[in-house]
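queue> pop job 88
queue> type: inverse folding (structure -> sequence)
queue> payload:
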């Protein structure tokens, strides 16, 4: 029920800003020892991916209505929250991630390893956390068409609520492509940092993003 509700709510959000999304590749499945990683432009990345698959996501704690959704609906699909200001959260979250990817019945785990929103022209360095879980990494590339509307969310200048309202009020449609790419595994002798950089290359090339 939780999975269906999350997918339905996200579908309503995408429809509210006249979203046209093209998905390429096989839809993610529930299986242990895998994690999905994607480039990050806006919090709507999560909504666009979530309407197809009820991912459990790792996300910073937010106040207001976003926090309410986090503590209720998204909690039901196994999402994991953290607070950047609390150093001890890192150890707790790392353990939760390792435990989650081992569970055969857990929803697929989604991580945005850039750790911040980027303008969809570039990718920035991927943090290594998702790449040292000892599991298969499944890359997802997201590319928005800026001819219609700029989906980039600058969190320093605009709240997510205002960003969402701006998309809803815009006459233009939000058009984007999503590619589910070939799963990758750590190669012999490869470090987690090198693994992260290799996956970043794969996503950047597919989405036509600069490094």
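queue> result:
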């Amino acid at each position: 029920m939780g999975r269906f509700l999350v997918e339905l709510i996200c579908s309503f959000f995408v429809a509210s800003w006249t979203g046209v999304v093209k998905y390429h590749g096989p839809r993610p499945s529930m299986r242990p020892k895998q994690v999905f990683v994607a480039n990050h432009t806006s919090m709507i990345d999560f909504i666009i991916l979530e309407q197809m698959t009820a991912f459990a996501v790792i996300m910073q704690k937010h106040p207001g209505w976003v926090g309410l959704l986090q503590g209720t609906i998204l909690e039901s699909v196994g999402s994991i929250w953290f607070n950047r200001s609390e150093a001890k959260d890192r150890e707790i979250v790392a353990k939760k991630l390792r435990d989650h990817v081992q569970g055969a019945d857990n929803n697929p785990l989604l991580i945005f390893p850039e750790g911040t929103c980027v303008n969809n022209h570039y990718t920035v360095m991927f943090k290594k956390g998702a790449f040292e879980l000892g599991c298969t990494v499944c890359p997802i590339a997201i590319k928005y068409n800026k001819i219609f509307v700029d989906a980039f969310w600058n969190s320093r200048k605009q709240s997510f609520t205002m960003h969402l309202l701006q998309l809803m009020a815009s006459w233009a449609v939000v058009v984007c492509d999503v590619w589910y790419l070939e799963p990758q595994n750590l190669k012999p002798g490869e470090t987690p940092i090198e693994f992260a950089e290799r996956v970043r290359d794969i996503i950047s090339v597919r989405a036509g993003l600069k490094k």
